[in-house]
Amino acid sequence: MVGRRVRVLAAEHCHHVTVRCNNRDFLLHRSQCRDVLLGAVFRAKARYDFHVYGVCVMSNHVHYLIAPKVAGELPKIMQAINWYSAMCMNRILKRKGHFWEARYGSSSFPVSDHRRVLNTLRYIHANPKDAKMRRGFVYQWSNYRAFSDLAEDGLTTWPAAYLAMAPTLSGCARGYRNFCRKYVKQPKPARRPGWGSKILPAGLGPAPKLGAATRRATLRSQVVGQYEILSFTELPGTKVPGTLPTTPATTGTWPALLPPGVFEFTTARTWPRTASGQGPATGFKHPT
After folding, report:
1. Residue 197 pLDDT exceeds 70
2. Residue 158 and residue 41: Cα distance in Å, rounded?
3. Neighbours of 95 (CB within 10 A)
């Protein structure tokens, strides 16, 4: 069993932290939620001593570039931010359960590594552009303008790498804008299949990714041995009401490949028929 990767919590290090919403759902699409998250950062900053070099709040994840003044306090800082923001946003969205994924990701490097600090800052500020949410780098829920226009947001600290770009602050701002113009998005490496793919039957892989324009439940069918699993992938903003099974299916009803005595989970809405022309794809069926 592979253990967790040990975090580097050394002095004079900064941390590029990525936090994703649970199941990578788009739970931060409301501006109110993004404002609450930034408020949680302010709240944690009043409690712990750390620098915020970079921040960018996206629709389903957040990027930070943080430098704690006390080595080893990063877990406490992130716990303070994530706990308070999750509690508030669950109330706003009227939901329960985990708001963030199980563990935040972080990569650490020395503050003295000016090249990596600037590259990481530019990557964080380029996220809205990479996601095609903005044509440029200016974005309401990032601190890009604190570097490009010297805007005062009460949160950002300029790292030494930024201040070393020019002898004056205006020169640093101009240099950072030019630095960002040279940004070229690097393609992400293809994800290698994990160990689970080695034990799954052929044809049982992850569902294909859906385009952003698709705003409906997409049905997919998989056959596992003698059972047929019919499931749907629900996109953000859609709700599918369901009712529990009461009537067993028989050999004379659809689908014919299932044995007798199979209970059917159905939804309260009518789904389109499957590609084979057999009945509606309505959840999944399992033997009694």
Report:
1. no
2. 17
3. 13
Task: State the pTM of this model.
Answer: 0.67
Q: How many CA atoms lie within 13 A of 251 on its CB side?
A: 2
State whether residue 66 is helix, strand or coil.
Answer: strand
DSSP code of 141?
Answer: T
| Residue 211 DSSP symbol | P
Assess contact for 57 and 37: CB atoms under 8 A: yes
pLDDT above 60 for 83: yes
Number of Cβ within 10 Å of residue 241's Cβ equals 7
All domains of the chain, ordered by start, with CATH?
13-181 (3.30.70.1290), 215-288 (no CATH)
- Taking the C-alpha atoms of residue 202 and residue 38, their distance in angstroms, rounded to an integer, is 45
Give the three-state DSSP class for 259. coil
Spatial separation of the C-alpha atoms in residues 125 and 61, rounded to whole Å: 13
Q: How far apart are CA 265 and CA 23, in angstroms?
A: 23
Q: What 3-state class would DSSP assign to 110? A: strand
